[in-house]
Write a structure and sequence with these properties.
This protein is α+β, with helices and mostly antiparallel strands. Helices cover about 40% and strands about 25% of the residues. It is globular. Belongs to the FemABX family.
């Protein structure tokens, strides 16, 4: 990574150059791979590189999207990126990015630094849920990360605007996630870290004869996923989205994405999708049968993905987004209760930040997003 005094320049790079850079990193978000740009067909994507006198030293996938009334300009979005040295002089990295994107028609930049700001152990989360006086993770004692604190401070000083809402879920990526550290651990270690309910459910699945395999039957997955969406009241993505996702990511790396299918007596009872980049794996989508939930196919799927991640030498198994509530009266608390049973830890990231490049255009965009948010809240009853 460059020294403070070295000048950095930003320029477009090819998908092949971008992928080569990703492959030399220990961990990069799958949202920052060239393939993800091909998955997000509603956005125009480009790969950008940072150069110093040694060559390519940073990279980012930028998704461009115009918004109503601002078709001449785009929002330039780098989800969970870019891949740069976040411990260094951020101005040296972000100033040339801003100049390049503004010169090419962006009215604002939105990025999500892949740096942690706080971590809570499973025991801390469990105690917080049991404590009637605690309502949110942020009410609990926390292990703060100095790198994350430094990044948020420097972004604020440079005029970047935080975008993550209180519940951690906004228009982009969730700020809070649940992760299981894998480095230096065995399967027995991981099982001991799980709570009694999780271990019992895994035994129940094994005793019932649930079999988990990997496969390519996306139609079977999608049928179960639509069933899950109807039961849990969310809007499912179309089958075509998953077909595009598997084609794009598999073409980039045959081990990038994998479908897990749990069957009981021949019937599909659960299914899930795992993504891996370097030493980080993510549980991205899941589905389960209402009729046979008692055989615990979802737990069996998760355990198969955790074991495969461990065998692949991964450092982290990522269960992705949670809301930061520990309030038992909040209907969202079930999500963190399910995930905390795996052991692991709750993690808060720096969240997403905007830099307005054209203030008038950004105000129009901000007003549009606020109005859309109010309409959505009215429709969903949030």
């Amino acid at each position: 990574m460059p020294h403070r005094e070295q000048a950095l320049t930003v320029a477009p790079i090819s998908a092949a150059e971008h992928l080569t850079f990703v492959r030399h990193q220990r961990s990069v978000s799958f949202l920052q791979t060239p393939a993800w740009g091909r998955v997000k067909t509603e956005w125009r994507s480009e790969s950008l590189g940072w150069y110093d006198d040694r060559g390519l030293v940073g990279a980012g996938l930028v998704l461009h999207r115009p918004v109503p009334r601002l078709e001449r300009f785009t929002l330039a979005y780098l989800p969970q990126g870019p891949v740069i040295d976040w411990t260094g002089d951020l101005g040296a990295w972000l100033d040339p990015l801003s100049a390049h994107l503004q010169a090419h028609g962006a009215f604002a930049i939105r990025l999500g630094p892949p740096v942690r700001t706080n971590t809570w152990s499973a025991a801390q989360v469990k105690d917080g849920i049991a404590d009637a006086g605690s309502k949110r993770l942020t009410d609990l004692a926390t292990q703060a990360d100095p790198v994350g604190a430094g990044v948020t401070s420097r972004l604020t000083d440079a005029g970047w605007l935080p975008q993550s809402p209180e519940d951690g879920f906004g228009a982009g990526q969730p700020q809070f996630s649940y992760e299981i550290p894998l480095a230096g651990r065995t399967e027995d270690d991981l099982l001991r870290g799980m709570n009694q309910l999780w271990r019992r459910n895994l035994k129940k699945a094994a005793k019932a004869g649930v079999e988990v395999t990997t496969g390519e039957d996306l139609k079977a997955f999608h049928d179960l996923y639509v069933h899950t969406a109807e039961r849990d009241r969310f809007t499912p993505r179309p089958l075509r989205y998953f077909e595009t996702m598997f084609a794009a990511m598999s073409a980039e790396d045959p081990d990038r994405i994998r479908l897990y299918l749990a069957r009981h007596e021949g019937a599909l009872v659960a299914a899930s999708i795992l993504v891996r980049v370097g030493t980080h794996t993510w549980y991205t989508y899941g589905a389960s049968s209402t009729e046979k939930r008692d055989v615990r196919g979802s737990n069996a799927c998760q355990w198969a993905m955790i074991r495969d991640s461990l065998a692949a030498g991964c450092d982290v198994y990522d269960l992705r987004g949670i809301t930061p509530t520990v309030d038992t009266a909040d209907p969202h608390v079930g999500l963190i209760q399910f995930k905390v049973g795996t052991g692991g830890q709750a993690v808060r990231y720096a969240g997403e930040w905007d830099l307005p490049l054209r203030p008038i255009a950004y105000r129009v965009f901000d007003l549009y997003m606020r109005r859309r948010g109010r309409r959505r809240a009215h429709v969903t009853g949030r």
